[in-house]
Structures are given as C-alpha cells and as structure tokens.
C-alpha cells in the first residue's frame, strides 16, 4: 500500500516538473519578440473594436427598452380608456370608431426568439473572453538580455492593456446579458398588455354596433361608395399595376406557373379520375369484389382532384398581399381571395363526393334524388358565395374598413340570402346533422341543430341591418366553420360504417360458402374439395342491427371529437362571452389565506359546470368500450379483470368530473365533507343492505368469484351471468328469464360456479339393462356410443361401469365430460340416441317397458340405494 503511495507522489512530481518546463517558454530572439508584439497589437485593436461594438449594442438595447416602456404605457392607457369609455360604446358609434382606430395603432407583439439567441451569443463571447484572459498567464517570458530594450517595454505594456480590455469586455458582457434579460421581461410585459387590450376589445366591442343602422339614406350612400371605388380610387388601374408587378416578381411568377401546371395536370387527369369512379362503382356492393380500399381511394383522389384550383386561388391571393403598399385595393383583394380559397376547396370536394359514381351515392348508398336536391345550388355557391366572401373580406381590410358599412354590409346581406337558399336545399334533401342509436337522422337533436343552422343567416341579416356587422360576420363565420367540421365528422362516421358493413358481409359470405360446401358434401357422401362459385347471392346485412354497440361507440367518439373541436373553434371568442361572468346568480363563501371571502357564482360558471358534466357523462357511458377497443384488448388479462378495470374507471371518472363541476358552482369537497360523513352514518344504518350489496359488488369485481358469461348455481337457481352491476347481478336461466340477485348473496352464500377456472363439466348417465343381458356387450356398446358422440371429450376419457344390480336390473353408469355447460343437454340427447340404436341393433331390451306396471315394486319401500334413469 505504501509502495503505491510513493509511486503516485513520484508521478505527480514528474508531471508538475514537465508542465513547468512546457509553460515556462522564454523568448530569447529579437525577431520572435517583434513578431509577438505585432500579434498582441492586432489582438488589442480587435478587442477595442469589439468594445466599441459592445457599447453601441448596449446603447441600442437601452433605447429599445425605453421604446418598449413607452409602448407599454401606450397600451395601458388604451386599456384604461377602454375600461372608462366601454359603457358608453352602445350609445355612440363614433366613439366606437375612435376606440377601434386606437386599437389599430397598437404595436405588434414582440418576438422573444431573437433575444434568446442574443443572450446565448453574449454568454459564448463572455466565455471566450474569460478563456483569453486566463491564456495571458501562459504567454512567454523574456530573457535577461531584453529586460532594458524598448520592445520588451512595449511587450509588457500590450500584455497589461489586453488584460484590461478583456476585463472590460467581460464586465460589459455581463451588463449586456442583464439588459437583454430586462428587455425580454419588458417584451413579455408588452405582450401581456396587448393580450389584455385584445380581450377587453372583445368584451367591449363584440356586442356593440360597429356601423350605423340601415336608414333611408343607405341606398344613396351605397351608390356613392360604389362609384367612388370604381372610378375615384383607380381600382382597375391599381389591379392592373399590381398584376404587372406580380408577373415581374420571380417568386410570384414561379408560384403562379407551378399552380398553373397543377391546374393543367388536373384537367388532363379528369378523364382518368371519372373512369376510376365508374370502374370502382361496378365493384361496390359485390361481396367478392368490394373492398374498403376503393372507398379510401375515392376519398384521396377526390381530395387531390379538388386541390389545384384552390391552390391557384390561394397563390394569387398571396401574391397580391406581397406587392407594394402603393396598391391598397390589390392588397385588400388579396386578403379576400385567401379567405375564399378554403371555402372553394370545400365546395369542390363536395361536388366530387356527390358524383353519381362518387362517395355519397355509390359508397354510402345515399339517395340519388336527395344528393341532387342538396347540390341544387352548387353553381350558386361557386359563382355567388365565393365572390361575395371575397368582397366582404376585402372591404373589411381596406383602408380601416372605410366601405365596410356600405359595400361590405350589402355583400354580406346578399351572402346570407345565398346561404339561406343553400341551407334550405340541404335540409330538404334530408341530410342529418345527428344520427341516433337507430341510425336515423330524424331526432330531436338533429331538428335543433337544423333550426339553429337555418335561423343563423336570418339573424345575421337582422344584426347587420341594426349595425352589428362585425359581430354577425364573426358568429356566422364560426357557425359555418362548425358546420363544415360537423359534416366532415359525419362523412367519417359513414366511412367507418361502410368498413363495418364490408367486414360483416365478408364474414357472412364465408359462412354461407362453408354451409353450402357441407350440404353438397353430405349430398354426395364424400369429403372431396368442392369449388364454390364466387357469385353467391348474399342478402344485404343490416349493420345497425348486427353491430349496434360498435356503431354506438363510433358515434360517441365522434361526438366527443365534435365537442372538443367546437370548444377549440369557439375558444377564440371566449372573451366575447365574458358578459356571462357579470351575471351573478348566487353567492357563496370561500376561505382564502384563513379569511372568509364572499364569492359569486355567475352564469358563465354554471355553463362551464354543465359542459363538464356533459363531457363526464359521455365519458362514463362510453369509457368501457373505449378502454376495450384501445387498451384492454391488447393486454393479456384474465377474464373479468377488464370489466373490473372499466367499472372502477367509470366510478373514478364520475367522481372527478362531479367534483370539478360542483367546484364551479361553489360546492367543493371542503364544504360538503361533513354532510357526506353524516349522511354516510345515517345511510349506513338505514340502507345497510344496499351498502352491503355495493361493497359486495366491489369485492366481486376484484376477487372475481363470478364473471360475465359464467354458469352458476346459487340457491335453487342455475343460469348464465349477463350483468354485474353495483347492487345486483343479473342471471338468465334456461327459460331465458332474467333473475336479479343481490351481490351480497354471491359473497355470503354457497355458490357453484361451473366455469370459474375450467369450463369442462362432468355428466353421469345411468343406463339400465335386463338381468340376462351380456354385461361385457353392454359395456362395449356404451363405450362405443361415447366414442361416436361428438360432444364427449376424449380427455378426460369417458368411463363405463356396472355399478349395481337392483331388483333384477343391471345398472350401468356412463361418466363423460363436456367442454362447456351449453353442451350438456346436447350430449345427453345425442348419447341417448346412440344407446337406443345400439340396443335395437343387438336385440337388447330396456327393463320396465312403458306398458308394464309393477305395483308391488312401486309400493314397496326399500332401504337400498335407488337410481333414477337418465339423471346426473
């Protein structure tokens, strides 16, 4: 051990001596010294420049901080003005316009990413400066011959100067990082202030008229503005010059050329597309030729074929927005074109889906007449709705909405009338907005949704006439977007439904082929392979009747997706509905930091609580199917474990959802825990049987003495378990009667579970024979009957015994095993038939023929063991 320590010390000493020799570099050459002095001079000059740049950068950061502080003050003043003047907005349209003009002058939100990059770069520079400062200690020393020379003095002065410069730069970098951090905080404050102003603007302006109501002077003002737009602001000239600038821009020209190529390819591929639709339509509905891939291809090809024209439209709008600000009409038109491009794409997709060989008619089997009725105003949507949307959005962006009150409002009203015609035609076509459990669209929720959809354009027209133009535009736009999402989910539902229908038809077709093969084999009397014609006529299967649970799961999932989509879509307008938070319904007290504070429950809180409970109920209803489809079927779980997990999960979700919903209306756990404890004690005595059954139900779920599908015998009842609920278990007996047994009985009473760990069950049959019959022959015949019976298991093997001789009768027992409870009666029937056939074939007789009556035997009492023929 001590030898190892000596070696380690020697190694350290040798290393330190070597490093000292390496670092102690001495300059003993005048040329080398001169070269080193020049390098130091260049390095110092570079550091001085860096120092100047650092000072300039620091000054710009401070100036930007001051600018941000001024902007924050401006935004806060605007917010204060909104708060002070907000209650007067409903009385003065001019005041609203003035405040809106102030909102337009607000600064843009700053971006934090450049600041993060600058801070990282400053830290890297600081690290480099620190490294260079440490490297000065390792500079070479001068030999004694240079101590009094001029170069040596200059060398030492440059070393000291570089050290001071590096220290100054390190200190300046620290200051820069600090100021950048302050600037980042100021940017965040500015962003928060702008968000507060926008939220306040939504609250104050959304439900306030932004233009004057329509009066008798409106037609005159409309005509004046139309003439002014066409002739006074040189609209056509601006559009012409903007087009020329687009064609002269390489980027815009490239994008337009590429879009035109797509459009040209689209028209070239139309013939092949329609040929594919017609060819696939001939295969849809035929069991052996139909495939879900046909539907997917139709959807994908239709989406692709609908893309080129909207892409060209969007590229044109984008190019208009990128031109010189000298053409404001063209820029505003670019906004309108971009806003109309997605709507145009949706219309073209719908037209492709509505083709005679397309998705709706051929694949979904919708009525051709109804689809034609729904698409009655398709040309109206393309040639009227799209231009009107462009006009409305363009004048909403042009020159601070200068013509929004006249031309924009007129175009919006005409657009609403066009939507009325379109909505009515779709409604008359019978398109459902909600499909119930029966697969029908004629239900209350569908009628309510259609009433909202049909009423929305009329309400928007009235609101626009009264001056609430922006409010009507925003709400109608959100509603139409919601309808598009809703119809998209409806198409997805029918696609899933078609996939289920195809899979079900294939299964039934394979079963039909197998049954036909078996019939033909039995008719010919041999087992040779037969070729089945693929054109077997198979009846159409009612998918709703066969897979109602699967479709209910699909409907529930789609409803949840639709609900979440609506929440996300309308979340941008949450501040517009903040007025509901001002409607106080009742008050409640809460404890904050040990102090009791009065808190009011508002209409908004109640609406949120209702929404939470709605989502909770939907989750509880569909959670078992969701877990089974998404998780449990992929896990290797024991039978019943999945059901226990689903049930407990339902209770947990219901409890959490209820607590969250109640907290919004002022009922939290801290307030009701004592009430629940008192109720628990009282109900424990008054409803102890119900609580006992509830606890027993939980024990059954986890201990699993019984499971759904098990065959059980309890008391004098035997049947199959079909439901395990919180309080009771439902058993269906052999007469198909449903008996509800309390859970407590399955825990406290004797229970026979025929299929708990093994579904195999034994059957004992007693077979009599006359006293003069050959016992070996009878045993052989009974064993042969067991071997020939298809329901008798080979393992465990059947057994036959001569168990008794009673009153001149030989009694034989057959002990056989069936695979499951459902085979017991089939096995008894089949094996009895085989035994009777064997008895007749060998001229054996059963004792006690039906017409003989042995009164002496019936009246005699015997203490010997008695057997009932044919019992278990």
UniProtKB/TrEMBL annotation:
Domain Mechanosensitive ion channel inner membrane, chain residue ranges per copy: 255-586
A GO CC term assigned to this protein in UniProt: plasma membrane
Mechanosensitive ion channel MscS C-terminal domain: residues covered: 763-845
Keyword set, alphabetical order: Cell membrane, Coiled coil, Membrane, Signal, Transmembrane, Transmembrane helix
Transmembrane segments: 252-269, 298-320, 332-354, 375-395, 407-427, 448-469, 475-496, 557-580, 600-620, 651-670, 676-702
Location(s), subcellular: Cell membrane
One of the Pfam families matching this protein, by short name: MS_channel_2nd
Coiled coil: 30-57
One GO MF term: mechanosensitive monoatomic ion channel activity
Residues making up the signal peptide according to the UniProt record: 1-20
SUPFAM superfamilies: Mechanosensitive channel protein MscS (YggB), C-terminal domain, Mechanosensitive channel protein MscS (YggB), transmembrane region, Sm-like ribonucleoproteins
Predominant location: membrane
Domain Mechanosensitive ion channel transmembrane helices 2/3: 647-688
Residue stretches making up the Mechanosensitive ion channel MscS domain: 690-755
Membrane topology summary: Multi-pass membrane protein
Similarity comment text for this entry: Belongs to the MscS (TC 1.A.23) family.
Full protein name: Miniconductance mechanosensitive channel MscM
Organism: Gilliamella apicola
Taxon lineage: Bacteria, Pseudomonadati, Pseudomonadota, Gammaproteobacteria, Orbales
